[in-house]
Each structure stands twice: as C-alpha cells, then as structure tokens.
Amino acid sequence: MVEYSGYVPVKPIDWTAKTSEITGKFLDTYYDREKKRAEQQAEVDNFISEVGKLETTNSQTFNNFILNGAQSATSYIQSQNDLFKKGLIDQNTLKRNIQNSREGLSNIKILTDGINERIRVGTERMNNGQAAPMEEYIQDHIYDIIDVSNKQYIQDENGNGYIVSLDGKTKISTKSLNNMLNQFIDRPDIMSDVDKAVKGLGVSGLNKDGKYIISARLTGDWEGTKNRMANDILASPQKAANVLAMQFGYTFTMDPEEAKGDSNKILLTLDPNGAYVPSLTKEQKSQAVDVVKKEIQARVGYEEKERDPDAAAKIALENRKLDVDLYKLTAEERAKEEPYYLRLRTLNDVLSGSREGMAAIIGKPLSYANAAGVPGGKAGEVNKKYAGYVIDDVIPLKNGDYKVTMKLGGDSENSPNKAIFNYTREGLISDLNQVLNTIEGSSKLDTEKILYLSKKGSGGGMGTPTASSTQAP
Q1: Neighbour count for residue 103 (Cβ, 10 Å)
Q2: Do 322 and 448 fall within a single domain?
Q3: How would residue 171 be classed by pLDDT, with cut points 50, 70 and 90?
C-alpha cells in the first residue's frame, strides 16, 4: 500500500534577526577599521612630533640639512598615511615604513654624536703606525664624508634614509653610517702571515741562512703551492690593496673615472653594510700576489730546481713494467716472486718522493748511511756521530741521484741537528731495503734480488749499494 506523502511545513526565515546580525558584523568591522585608522593616525602624529623635536647644532649648514630631511620625512609619512586610508597599503606596511623613517632620521645623529672621538682615535692610530694606508685615506676624508653642504637627505619607497650628494656620485645609507665611519684597518703583517703559512706546510728546521727547510714531498708543485698560499693570505681585498699601497705607493680614490684613468689608483666602493671595499683590477691583484710569493720564496730554503719534476712519471712507468712482468709468471712462480715485486714498488714510491712511499720509511733509522763517506765505512763506531738520527725526507734530483735528509729523532722543528746524504739510485734501494727488512712483521728480502728487478725495470746499471757521500749542514 502506498503511503501518503504529504506537505512538510518549513520554518520561515526571521529576516529581522538576520538583518540585525549582518548589521552588527558590519558595524564591528567598521569600528575595528576606525580603531586601526586612529591608531595609525596616532603613530603618524607621533612620528611628525618626533621630527619636530630634532636637536639643532652650532652649524647652520647642518641645521638646514636636518630641516630639509625632516620635511622630506614628514611628507613621505603623510603620503604613506594617505595610501593606507585609501586601502592601497596595509597596516603592517605603514608601520614598517614609519619605523624605517624613524631609524633613518635618528641615525643622522651619528654625524654629530661621537664624531670627534672617532677622529681622535683615527689620528692616534695613524701616528703610531697601526693604521693601514686605506684607513689613513678614509681618515683624511672623514670631513668630506660628514660634510652635508653638498648633500641632501632622501628616502626610498620603504622609508629607508640615504644621504645623497647633489652630483649623484655618493649615496650613503644612514643605517650604515656607523660602520662606514668606524672602519679601522690594521697595517698588514705579511711576514707573519707568510711564516704561519710556511709552517703550515710542515717545516723540518732552519738552514744556516735562517730559511725554513721544507720537504719536496710536502710542497708538491712548488709554484702552484706558492700561488695558493699567496692567494689565501690575500683573501681579503683590503689586505691586497694595502700591500700595493705599502710596496708600490698605490693611492686610493672614490671616483670611478679617476681610477679608470690611473692604474696606480685603487677604487673604493661602499658595500651594503657601509664598509669601504677596494675594487682591485686583475692586474693589481696579480701584482699583490707576486709580492707575497716572493716573500714566501725568501723564507724557504728548498729550491724546486733540485727536484726532478718527472720522477713520479718515470717511476709509474717502471711500476707498470713490473706489473706486466709479474703477470707473465705462472701462478706458482708468482706466489714466490710477488713479495719482491711488492717490495720494489714500495721502494719506487719512495724514490718518486710520494707521501705514500715516505710513510713506509720516514722516522726509521738508516744505520748503513751513518757510515757513508767514510773509506770502507760500515755500521759500527762511526754510527755514534749520528746515533738517534732518523729518515726525514727523500728528494729525487734531476741528475738521477737522491738527497736524503736525516734528523735527530724527537728534536724540535728548528733543530740544526740534521744530516744530508747524497745517494745513487742503487745505493738508496740497497739501504732502504735493509731498513724495511728491520720492520717487525716484514719479510726479510734479499737486496741483490731487489736490485736485479730494479735494473730490469729502469734499464740502468747495478751501481754500488752504498751511499755516495754525506755532509752535515
């Protein structure tokens, strides 16, 4: 049976209540906006009141500058308030712009408050030689910087204040005034910087001329190492600029056209924080780097010309020949001969002057070398002269020989207790193999067989398995 689906009554809308609700919300919004407008108007009025209370000075020129700046700031804030009332900017934007304007004007006081103390400190630093040439230039131009007779105060769209010269060449943010006026730059001590950098390479003493002795295995490409060190020392363009001023009499300028027309002028520009930064040309930076590289060279006794630049390549070729020869052997022969091939590879790494090779023998006593240069010399009584000395460095020389440096173990880096031995290739292989034979856990391998394999790899003669000469510097 189909049930009757009748009319369901609907509760009528109370339009009077709805109208009252909507009107109430509208009024709440209206009153909230009016409250915010009143707050913002009060903020604007307070700012204008603060501007009117700016202190005057004894200088009519400065007073006029302040007055014109205050009028500019007032006009700006009134225009911002008008934009707010029209709904073109929001409340947060207006607040931010008012705050920026307030800071911009208050920072102008830096030009009067404490400026005399800044000049006093700067003059004292110049007189005692602490100030770098760049700081001296800034000090000489302090009065030009704070001279407002040819400048005006303006604001950008966000209320940030700037002091701008009438010719448009200078624009200084008032937020950066403090950094700009209080930029103190110490005179660079390049010799001290070089000493720290050179010691950082790992020095092993001083020679008789007072120069640092540095292992060739630590310097690698000496020219490249010097260039890297010099660039690290001159990472700050301020330091590079002051080196040029001290060494070659370069001077500074804030005029781009003047710098462009004179290669001995260094252009100074202001960075966003208000600090003066030298804008060095490529040629100027290169000249400063050369100064430091020469100072580095002057402090180091090591001469690259002694070292064979092709030693590593030659040894690499010999090691490849060894690998080929080892591969040609039968499995049974390879198991027997492989320790000799591996030992010679280790010795070859030493001969190439590599860090990896040196790690195997550095700090080890070289007893057979202690008697080098003595007719018929053998390990024995002569050893007393070099008792306690250990291997410190091996340098492959261009004439095919090797320079081995030994030092008194545990002594300081500046110790004069050093001995330098000039070795033939075969002599060094012979003695170093015996050094490796003494290391605990190492195989005791026959030196003559090692020399035979070396002869096959290098194509050279057997030579004499002793050191050729020795001297103590």
Answers
A1: 14
A2: yes
A3: confident
